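<derive_structure_tokens>
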Amino acid sequence: QIQNLTGGNVRISANTENGVIRFMGTDPSHAIPIYEASGLKYNPELAARNFLSEYGQLFGIRNQSYELEMIENNTVDQSRSFTRFQQVYENVPILGGEVIVQVSANNSVISTSCEILSEMSFNVTPTTSPSYAQEIAKNMIAKSYGLDIEELTATEPQLWIYNPTILGLDQDLTSLVWRMDIVSTGEIPVDELVLVDAH
């Protein structure tokens, strides 16, 4: 169907292990039209969501309205817009899980790039506290840099889901983590992103 809609002018790259599409793109003259529902004026986000509702399963997305939160929309030269979505699972964001949809001025889809975790069944209830995770993170960074723990501050920990494969690493293990930044208040510059297992 996508081949027909683009007149065969489409490039597709898929994950060799599961067949899920990671990139789909065509040139603007063969963009995939997204038809407006009666009484609904489309914008880039709605056009992107409509496209993903129709074709999302090709990208490993079962229900875009629950799995994707819009985090950014940029218009370039008044002719193209890029809408970036964060993948979430039960309202918990997934580190590295993003979808970017490029649409033309008339909200036809030019390209879609996708890095997501698919087919998850996962408990998102932590069994460690955020303050405990802060303590672990600051102790680890203090030891790594040879600093006193009093020289470090941590941002408020946030729950995220982490799987190294989405960042191109080999280990396929999904974890619930507390995510925070650790920075130094002393002379030695420290600015580290730290993930602490929430269990």
